[in-house]
Amino acid sequence: MSIAALVAWLVTAVGGFYMLGTWTARGGASREGSSRLPVPVIFGHFLLAATGLVVWVVYLFADTSALAWTAFAILLPVALLGFVMFARGLAVTRSPAVRTTQGAPGAATPDTPAEHAFPVPVVLGHGLFAVATLILVLLAALQA
């Protein structure tokens, strides 16, 4: 269970890194960027998730239940921040103001939010693997 949680966490992280890179490349972190996601929420989500992953790896080596529960506790605000970003992203993709009628698909325009360039399969995969990670970490912590 612990290794399955690690694998799910790593797959989730790959999707998250891809979206963070896309968001940054599209100007999401700049003041002039058109992102509708707050920078502290994005980087808080990333930093907490990375911290939790490090704690989980340490748990795998130390086999201390307190570390498993600490990793799970860290995942709770990670999940909350992820849900907040997902909900705000839904509002962005449903807004008619961000739909483009000209240019290549996914091409950025001044009024297009940076997160609009996220591929839907990556967003869905990231979210599904994040839920799987949360459940697997909880189950492993209960068994620790």
Textual characterization of the structure:
The chain crosses the membrane at residues 37-59, 66-87, 123-142. Keywords: Membrane, Transmembrane, Transmembrane helix. This is Putative membrane protein. The protein has helices at residues 2-25, 39-62, 65-94, 120-143. The chain has one domain (2-93, 112-143). It is 71% helix and 0% strand. The longest helix has 30 residues, at 65-94. By secondary structure, the protein is mainly α.
Keywords:
144 residues; 4 helices; 0% strand; mainly alpha
Outline of this structure?
By secondary structure, this protein is mainly alpha-helical. Helices cover 71% and strands 0% of the residues.
Distance between the termini: 10 Å
Biggest sheet statistics = none
Number of helices: 4
| Quaternary assembly | single chain
The poorly predicted ranges are: none
Average pLDDT works out at 86
Along the chain, the helix and strand elements come as HHHH
User: Helix coverage percent of residues?
Assistant: over 70%
Shape category: elongated
C-alpha-based Rg, rounded: 17 Å
Find the structural class using helix and strand composition: mainly alpha
What portion of the residues fall into strands of 2 or more residues?
under 5%
Give the total of beta strands. Answer: 0
Our count of domains comes out at 1
Transmembrane segments: 37-59, 66-87, 123-142
Keywords: Membrane, Transmembrane, Transmembrane helix
Organism: Actinomadura livida
Protein name: Putative membrane protein
